[in-house]
Amino acid sequence: MRRLSITLALICLLVLTTPVLTLAQPGYTPHEDPSLARTAPDLTALLTYYGNTFSAAALGKYVDAQSLLTELAQAQIPDELTVLADRFSALASALFGKMDRADRLLDEATELLATNQPQAARAKLDAAADIQDAQSLLIDIDSAARSMKSALGTFAAPVLRQIEPAYTRLEQNLLRLSNLLDEVSRLRQTLDEKQKALATRLIPTALTLNITPQGVFIGESVTASGFLSASTPLPERTITLQLGKESTIATTGPDGAFTIAVNIPYLYVSQMLLEAVYLPAGDDTAIYLAAESQPAIINATYHLTKLDVTVPEKTHPGFPIPIIGQLSSPGEEVERIITILWDDVPIAGRQAKGKFSFEITPPDDVTPGKHALAIHVIPQKRYAPASREFTVDVSTVMAQADILMPSVVVLPWQTGVSGKVTSDRAPVPDAQIEVRLGRSTTFIRTTADGTFSARINTPFNLSLAGPQEMSVTVTPTQPWYEPLQIKREVFTINPSSIAIILLAAGSLGLFLYRRRRSAILTAAAQPVVARPATPQHLPITPAPIPKQEFIGFKGIILSSYFSAVEEIGNLTGVVLGETTTLREFLKTTAPKIAASALPLTELTVLAELALYSTRQLDAEAAAHAEKQASAIREELRRATS
Amino acid sequence: MRLHKVITITTLLVILALTALVWFFPSNDDFRLENRFWNGASETLSGPFRPVKSLAQMPAESTLLLIPYVDFTAAELQTVKDFVVQGGTLILADDYGYGNRVLEFLGFKARFSGRPLLDPLVNYKNQWFPRVVHLSDSPLTEGIENLALNHATAIANVAADEVIAQSSAFSYLDLNANEKQEANEPNGPHPVISRYSLGGGQVILIADPSLFINSMSGIEDNHQLIQNIATLNTTPPLVDQSHLTPSNLHQTKDLLASARGSLASPLGTLGVVALALSITLLPFWRERRQP
């Protein structure tokens, strides 16, 4: 027992001193509790990023500057500053918009002037005139920046020192922007003067355009003809005929006339515009202005495609969808290509002519809900495209399961579960059945008629008896069926556990019974020993004084001791019991015999030597013992008298 | 009562009390599904996600969320690669862990930067919680306008067509960890979610696993991201718990759980019964042996 207690104490100490049970937080991981995080808007960063925005604009990167402003709308700005920041951003956005537009218009005007088109350039320059307003916008922005600096200073006094450099940078960028605006204004003025000079210095030209026939099928061609002249016809000049994005080049003849075939692209529109343009090149750039013809209208014809199609409004995952329809177009019936898109993703392609019928299957991972189904007929030369769009509601089908399971299960023996899986009274074959009881699981599949019969090994556990959950999960192979789970409580009885518990309880009872009985028997067999503390209550059985004859010096000593013991016993009532040691007797009686205590102590030591020691005792020891016994006797007598 | 008896009983009581305390003390480990506190994933991941305690348990063609806070063995890396090549979807969410080991093994150029991504302007509360506002069209970002990160990093070496989400233009990588933007620190936008194909499967990198902790779920559209991950495949998504740093408490809980499992087995139960019988019957056996 002592060893066990030491071992356990050591284990306990070890456990407590090792970090095994440390309940502190785990080691550092890089995240913090957002609910405890400090809200700290970085106002200096706000001014810095406004500065960056104007810096980008000053470099002519208006799109970048605009996108930075758009992102600033997402910034975490205190409510007190939101109105000011929004106003500032709106002014900056308007400024960047104006500058971007002016920049583009002036670029276009430059290009037009380079090709001797002063009239077109004039329109661009006039449109860019509102760049003058940008200066006043910039003044507003400068004022708003000062207000913002002041507001930020009030709002975030501790960071005022950090705000100052950010504001200075913003001011510098605003100044750069102002300089850029001045440059743009000067450019506009220069271009304006150049336009006027060109218009007065160069000779105007005229360009005519005719087409035959006026109406054609797409894919065919028309003949375009015209005439280029200044004051006289202009031969050997290049004319560009522009039809949508397509262009055709013609060259004027000696009489300034040109004729060329222009192919009509497969564009399924009823009208197209053809335009002829003359741009001076080479020496002409110093003499003639550019010319544009009046646009000629081409009436284009093509075959419309009519697509009639029916698609079911509802379907199930994995279910094929029938698509039935008819294609019709004027003219000859041709084979067309049809593509089918499921949620804008192509899933099938078919060739069809006239009436058609085919099936498509939605993707395997289709989720229940509404989905877009589009059917496109690809354009084919004169035949225009056609398309129809539908919404298909995908839903799963509920299967039903009639399950027969026992209400009482005896552990740990096998138990049977059977049943039938159906849907709208039709059997569901090959469905996976998972039967679970506690931690035991068994799998089986339904037969062709939807039935199944499974046996499950019930698990061994410590439970005696009670309800347990038994579940049957049905997972049909067909994707259109919804998985199904049925749970029921069964009453389980565990005879082996009951037997083990009864055995354990019985043995414990037996143990306790035997222990009690043994204690009673031991108590009955043992003599009752008087206790000094309670001598008056306990029956005293005196120790039998040895009757044998003591011989030699040891005998004298022991005779003296026992005679003293007897006399002390007579006086105090304390007797030397069978299990009482000589020292215990001394300890018990010493307080009661006062002056005899010392001689009794010496006599006890001598008696112990005589009884237990191998030491030879001499006559002197024997005489001393007798003397002590005599002293005790004397003292006791004195005490009683 | 003798002293050694007092020591024995006290020791046994202390051991029992400590065992009960460890057993019932709630887990506080990061990202653990059983942790109900702010840094756990009991609310975010326990619904649709199923925990896997070993990478060897993964079924093919499913989605696996991997938070690599513990290094990988060569065999584990190969298992992850095989899983992806055979059609699985790997969501590798890391900031300062061992994600780059996986990327290196898979042969990708992309790397987790390992530096804090801060955003002083577009954020939730403060710059340590960058808000992600640039999201490209993807099944992963359906129905999401904003995401909020928590002590995140960025993904480096990402091609434009691989980016799914990136931080704002005001974000930056805090290279010297002084929480202030400096001239040499790269400006945003920085990719925080990217996607790659590998064999029949795909790998999605997320530069902040903290998106998945309970306290971040209700912020911005983080919850929707988790929902979208859960529906990437038809099979239930899995979350690997074997590469999360285990705390001492968690290790002790595991130890107790395995001990309980052993005792609950038929052999263990019989052993306990036999031990109980031996202890009760030992006095009788001793009694008989005495003459």
Overview of the structural elements:
- The complex is a heterodimer of chains A (641) and B (291).
- Chain A has twelve helices and 28 strands.
- By secondary structure, chain A is an alpha+beta fold.
- Chain A has five domains: 159 residues; 96 residues, Immunoglobulins (Immunoglobulin-like), CATH 2.60.40.10; 89 residues, Uncharacterised protein PF12988, DUF3872 (Immunoglobulin-like); 96 residues, Sandwich (Immunoglobulin-like); 89 residues, no CATH class.
- In chain A, the strands form seven sheets. In chain A, strands 2, 4, 5, 7, 8 and 9 form a six-stranded mixed beta sheet that branches. Chain A has a five-stranded mixed beta sheet with strand order 11-17-16-13-14, with no helix packed on it.
- In chain A, strand 4 and strand 5 form a beta hairpin.
- The longest helix of chain A has 42 residues.
- Chain A is elongated and about 175 Å long.
- Chain B is α/β, with parallel strands linked by helices and 291 residues long.
- Chain B has two domains: 54 residues, no CATH class; 191 residues, Rossmann fold (3-Layer(aba) Sandwich).
- Helices cover 33% and strands 16% of the residues of chain B.
- Chain B contains seven helices and 14 strands.
- In chain B, the strands form four sheets. An eight-stranded mixed beta sheet of chain B has the order 1-14-2-3-13-12-10-7. In chain B, strands 4-9 form a two-stranded antiparallel sheet. A two-stranded antiparallel ribbon of chain B has the order 5-11.
- In chain B, helix 2 links the parallel strand 2 and strand 3.
- In chain B, helix 2 packs across helix 3.
- The mean pLDDT of chain B is 87.
